[in-house]
Amino acid sequence: MPAPAIIWFRQDLRLEDNPALAAAAEAGPLVALYILDETRGVRPWGGASRWWLAESLAALEKELRRKAVPLILRRGPAARVLGEVVAETRAKSVHWNRNYEPYAIRRDKAIKAELAKRGIEATSHNAALLFEPWTVKTQAGEPFKVFTPFWRALQGLPEPPRPLPAPRKLEKAYRQPRSDRLADWALKPVKPDWAAGFGNFWQPGEAGARQRLEEFLAGHLALYHEMRDRPDLSATARLSPHLHWGEIGPRQIWHAVKAQAIASGDLVPPRAAESFLRELAWREFSHYLLFHWPRLPSEPWKPEFGRFLWRNDKAGFAAWQRGRTGYPIVDAGLRELWDTGWMHNRVRMIAASFLVKHLLIAWQEGEAWFWDTLVDADLAQNAASWQWVAGSGADASPFFRIFNPVLQGEKFDPQGAYVRRWLPELAQVPIEFLHKPWTAPPTLLAAAGVVLGRDYPEPVVDHALARERALAAFETLRQGVAGRPVRRTSRAREPSKARQ
DNA sequence: TGAAATGTTGGGGCG
DNA sequence: ACGCCCCAACATTTC
User: How much is the pTM?
Assistant: First the structure.
């Protein structure tokens, strides 16, 4: 009888297109293992991530049980736990899918070496990316620093392999190690149960991911290009948490979108499919950047931002976190985040821009809040996207590109449905004033049941002043005077009368 | 994957 | 009828 093989599940909580699972199943009877590693040096999962993880593990456990394989849950330092499980099961091989985060790369390398010493074969596979990050290079052999050439380079590469089917049959190892009980890990919040409503929005697990993809392909893909920036329309795929946890892989999405675009011909214009695949490539680019610049999560990619003086503004940060900045589109986004663990991409950009540029609060603080509250919180994507907004990242939005939250609201939530949904206190305010309630006559607001400062806050900063302040702060980067604001050389402008 | 300031143009009111 | 001015509307530049 062949020796058992361990499939070590990590962020690949699926049976389909899971090369490590396929290889382990090929190698011997299975031990299916998940390790919760909360030791020092490992960034702890945020609260929303823990909720999702609990649900997703339960779903995976169920899928595996249908194939008569138990999911073994263990807690502790991954290297030690894996060593113990190898000893307990007398497994001869371990398979996992690669994670490209700097900590995971170091850890996995050490584990591989340690197992090799004991004569155990350890094999890693790619389940998370369309292309291995080290295979995509400029002509000069350097990693790409700009998205568009990166995207063009991807299109020149051979198509990513077709996804593997789920193994039809699995054989479980006779000797199964002991397992923790999922409930004992206490991953979900109890008091207060802020995740109580999450189940209305999400179905974690492989089946939920597949369903989400199918609904998107059948419905919104055709409109994706036109509607993707409209948070009121729910025109995006909402696959991000499923992708983050590996309940579905990018290869599955890539091929499904292409097949759908071809099958439905005119109904799905090439533009729509292309525009969606481009977003998948942005995900790829984030992971690629993290692989090549491992300090991306903590340090500005553009070193000159290291001396930028961010403001320490506890009150401003708290107002932002709670969705009480007084700018409805910003606040609606942060409330959506709190209530659902997710925020529409357009609104993420607006809300992030507001924190970094209007409040001049360091992007790292926003990154940490998103890390704790997003069900799709992902080290690479979170860091790359915040740095993009802040202007310190690769191919970043220039610092002087400052979103006007009123105009953004009017443009992308034209009827105000999104704001009204997440800010019920403003539900009766007419659209004319909805995105800028401080400009409304107080009698009109009163008729809508709103007193500013009581039911909904006054703006925490004036947009025009905040914009000037941000542009002035930007000068300190350009002129290279460390830590000291530089007098503007351009002529002074009249202060805005926007709020008078 | 902007916004605001500045510049240009052309139609219409009006002396 | 003509030129002047005003000012949307659009284009360009700057941050």
Answer: 0.94
Q: Which entry of A151, A274, A345, A468 is annotated as an active-site residue?
A: A345
Mean pLDDT of A397-415: 94
Q: CA at A183, C1' at C13: how many angstroms apart?
A: 61
Q: Which fold, A5-127?
A: Rossmann fold (3.40.50)
Q: Where in chain A is the domain with CATH 1.25.40.80?
A: 129-162+207-292
For the CA of A409 and the C1' of B11, the distance in angstroms is: 33
Q: A106 pLDDT exceeds 50? A: yes
Q: pLDDT tens digits for A33-76?
A: 999 999 988 899 999 999 999 999 999 999 999 999 999 999 99
Structure tokens given for A128: 């998370």
pLDDT of residue A497: 26
- The CA distance from A426 to A330, in Å, is 14
Q: How far is CA A9 from CA A75, A82, A124, in A?
A: 13, 11, 11
Residue A479 pLDDT = 62
Q: Which nucleotide is nearest to A496 (CA to C1')?
A: B4
- Record: fold of A303-478: DNA Cyclobutane Dipyrimidine Photolyase, subunit A; domain 3 (1.10.579)
Q: Is A139 exposed, middle or buried (0-12, 13-18, 19+ CB in 10 A)?
A: exposed
Query: How many helices and strands, by DSSP H and E, does chain A display?
Result: 20, 5
Q: Burial, A475: exposed, middle or buried (Cβ in 10 Å; 0-12, 13-18, 19+)?
A: middle
Domain with CATH 1.10.579.10 in chain A: 303-478
- 3-state DSSP call for residue A71? strand
User: Has A386 been annotated as catalytic?
Assistant: yes
pLDDT value at residue A264: 87
Whose structure tokens read 């607001």? A445
